[in-house]
Amino acid sequence: MILGRVAGRVVQTIQHPATMNRRLLIVDRLDPDGAPSGGYLVAVDSVGAGHGETVLVLDEGNGARQILQWENAPVRSVVVGIIDASG
Amino acid sequence: MQLGKVIGTLVPATIADGLAGVPLLWVQPLDKRGASAGMAFVAADGTRMAGPGQIVTWEASREAALTLEPSFVPVDHAIVGLVDDVQLDEEAR
């Protein structure tokens, strides 16, 4: 899993059915100190994370498909936690 | 998923089983602000609706193959959605 910070949202109408009616978040990657380490990913939200929150992102497809409960979902990244403190 | 922009199309003369009829598009990966980031690649269009100029989300590797039916066709990048809007939080930039 990786640490990230919510930096925005992606809005789509036409998309794979597995991501329909789910929030897509732009998540900046963070280093262990909480500073942006460069790069981002678009992750499916599963915990209701938003705006500037530090989050835990699962970046592995099989786990993502289990969380979405969708056998063949073409999704690799899912926000699975909101982090209060890291250090 | 990552963001990308469709910058061209390919027309194959011969193609592997499972990819017949699947649109193949050039995709330029983008950073979150829409600037080019990295080398362009060829992606299968899982939405079958993307065209040049379209901003898209794409997946790589096994997730790309799962985009198509049947899955596990020889695909390593695929378009999974057409982006209407990217909304960045000002404070987080």
List the helices and strands and how they pair.
The complex is a heterodimer of chains A (87) and B (93).
Chain A: E1 2-15, E2 24-30, E3 36-45, E4 54-59, H1 61-68, E5 77-82
Parallel strand pairs in A: 3-5
Antiparallel strand pairs in A: 1-2, 1-4, 2-3, 4-5
Chain B: E1 2-10, E2 24-30, E3 41-45, E4 55-60, H1 61-67, E5 77-88
Parallel strand pairs in B: 3-5
Antiparallel strand pairs in B: 1-2, 1-4, 2-3, 4-5
Question: Could you please describe the fold and organization of this structure?
Answer:
The complex is a heterodimer of chains A (87) and B (93). Chain A is mostly beta strands. Chain A has one domain (2-82): OB fold (Dihydrolipoamide Acetyltransferase, E2P), CATH 2.40.50.220. Chain A has one helix spanning 61-68, and strands at residues 2-15, 24-30, 36-45, 54-59, 77-82. A 5-stranded mixed β-barrel of chain A has the order 1-2-3-5-4. The model of chain A has no long low-confidence stretch (mean pLDDT 95). Chain B is mainly beta and 93 residues long. In chain B, 8% of the residues lie in helices and 42% in strands. Chain B starts with a strand and ends in a 5-residue tail after the last strand. The relative contact order of chain B is 0.27. The chains are: A mainly beta (87), B mainly beta (93). The interface between A and B is medium-sized, with 29 and 31 residues. Strand 1 of chain A pairs antiparallel with strand 5 of chain B.
Alpha carbon gap, first and last residue of chain A: 16 Å
The ordered string of helix (H) and strand (E) elements of chain B is: EEEEHE
Oligomer: heterodimer
Q: What is the number of domains of chain A?
A: 1
CATH class of chain A: Mainly Beta
Number of discrete helical segments of chain A: 1
CATH 4th-level superfamily of chain A? EutN/Ccml
Give me the strand/helix succession of chain A: EEEEHE
Could you name the ranges of chain B where pLDDT drops below 50 across 5 or more consecutive residues?
Answer: none
Summarize the biggest pleated sheet of chain A: 5 strands, mixed, barrel
What is the CATH third-level topology name of chain A? OB fold (Dihydrolipoamide Acetyltransferase, E2P)
Please give the radius of gyration of chain B in angstroms: 14 Å
